[in-house]
Design goal:
three-stranded mixed sheet, binds 2'deoxy-thymidine-5'-diphospho-alpha-D-glucose, seven-stranded parallel sheet, 13 helices, single chain, binds nicotinamide-adenine-dinucleotide
Length: about 375
């Protein structure tokens, strides 16, 4: 495969995928297709923008004609689709934008790819449509194991230990879809469309469902970068509900490595779950972040714990997500490379060292959004 479109490449995860592919595969032409919504930021890709195998195209994935033209002009062989509206809180306020981009945008890409690839003599041979999705489509798991073993974990446990405690209470590739938020409902719908294009037209598709990512370049509306920035400025940390919801955290570069592995070696029509076997209660992770920021800023560790402010819960807040990624580990040999302690230290350090990146985002329009988001909590 030579000519690859990565959609949403100016966003958080997309920028890591673009960087990995541009640097690792000089023989590929990598086209970063992004509308540059509030979440898209070309500053995330400064280090690769001058590489000869990289090109940026500003485009809305809902623009069928423009994308169909691009497929033809650039002889696209592969699509790695990350562009989406990605923030659950925004989806609760504005579900239509999520349906438009995540559902109609994905459908538009699929149909344009179908028309172009089916017009070629080789048709789908050597082609691939890889759709990046989320564990949120599976719904929510119980907070405690049915036999009463206390959950969740607040320190790193091995996957074996986690399995021992939770039994099979994880999201598997076969788990029935049961999305709850407008965001996850829209992602679920897009996943169904991707699979339908394989089942109906024979398009070589792959879907992966990943757990919560953290790391550099994440937009500071998401828990970890938002809280790092607030701690630095000694602003309140809005913890939803009791802070007991559980998420499974994966370092973003590990997700990008998984995407590389699956794009090249994954089986067509398969689904792979990607996760860190790294479950944390929100409140526990928040305390780790506070201690780490304090230490790295030369403050007394724990000095900023009093910034924790319990606020009204997110509507429909899913209790627990936990991915079982043993299929990916067994079949393709991928596994997370970073321990959480190491990953969080790297992440906090990165945000503190890149204040300009953060300040450029958190001034102006963002400030207005943030205030309106939290005004009535
Ligand atoms: P993000 O919000 O940081 O980035 C999304 C990117 O998509 C931005 O660059 C934005 O400009 C672009 N975009 C949005 N609408 C567009 C449109 N209509 N046309 C073209 N570009 C558009 O998102 P992220 O956190 O990097 O997530 C990327 C993908 O990974 C999403 O599909 C998301 O559902 C999925 N995912 C995210 C996580 C996570 O923890 N962040 C976990 C699992 C899966
Ligand atoms: O699980 C994968 C998903 O992870 C991705 O599909 C989404 O795109 C991504 O945004 C993320 O969704 P979450 O809703 O889990 O992430 P978020 O960072 O918004 O919140 C993480 C947890 O922290 C969640 O339980 C809500 C809570 N939270 C979040 C914010 C922003 C707070 O308590 N306070 C906050 O201010």
């Amino acid at each position: 495969m030579k000519n690859i479109v990565i959609t949403g490449g100016a966003g958080f995860i997309g920028s890591h995928v673009v960087r990995l592919f541009v640097n690792k595969y000089p023989e590929y032409n990598i086209i970063n297709l992004d509308k540059l919504t509030y979440a898209g930021n070309l500053a995330n890709l400064k280090d690769v923008e001058d590489k000869p195998n990289y090109k940026f195209v500003k485009m809305d994935i809902c623009d069928f004609d423009a994308f169909y033209q691009l497929m033809q002009d650039e002889h696209i062989d592969g699509i790695i689709h990350l562009a989406a509206e990605s923030h659950v809180d925004r989806s609760i306020k504005d579900p239509f934008t999520f349906a438009r981009t995540n559902v109609m945008g994905t459908l538009s890409l699929l149909q344009a790819a179908k028309l172009y690839w089916e017009s070629l003599p080789e048709k789908y041979e050597g082609k691939r449509f890889y759709h990046i999705s989320t564990d949120e489509v599976y719904g929510a798991l119980e907070m405690t194991h049915p036999e009463g073993i206390p959950a969740p974990f607040s320190t790193k446990a091995s996957s074996e230990q986690q399995h021992e405690a939770y039994g099979e209470d994880f999201f598997l590739e076969t788990t029935k879809y049961n999305p709850h938020s407008p965001y996850s409902a829209a992602k679920a719908s897009s996943d169904h469309f991707v699979r339908a294009y394989h089942d109906t037209y024979g398009m070589p598709t792959i879907v992966t469902n990943c757990s919560n990512n953290y790391g550099p370049y994440q937009f500071p509306e998401k828990l970890i970068p938002l809280f790092i920035n607030n701690i630095r400025h000694r602003k309140p940390l809005p913890v939803y509900g009791k802070g007991e919801n559980v998420r499974d955290w994966l370092y973003v570069e590990d997700h990008a490595r998984a995407i590389d592995t699956i794009f090249h070696r994954g089986k067509v029509a398969e689904t792979y779950n990607i996760g860190g076997f790294n479950e944390w209660k929100n409140i526990d992770i928040i305390k780790v972040v506070i201690n780490t920021v304090d230490r790295l800023l030369g403050r007394k560790e724990g000095e900023d714990l009093d910034l924790i402010t319990y606020v009204t819960d997110r509507l429909g807040h899913d209790a627990r997500y936990a991915i079982d990624s043993r299929k990916l580990q067994a079949e393709l040999g991928w596994e997370p490379s970073l321990q959480f302690e190491e990953g969080i230290e790297k992440t906090v350090r990165w945000y503190l060292d890149h204040q300009e990146w953060m300040d450029n985002i958190t001034s102006g329009e963002y400030e207005k959004y943030y205030e309106s988001m939290y005004a009535n909590r």
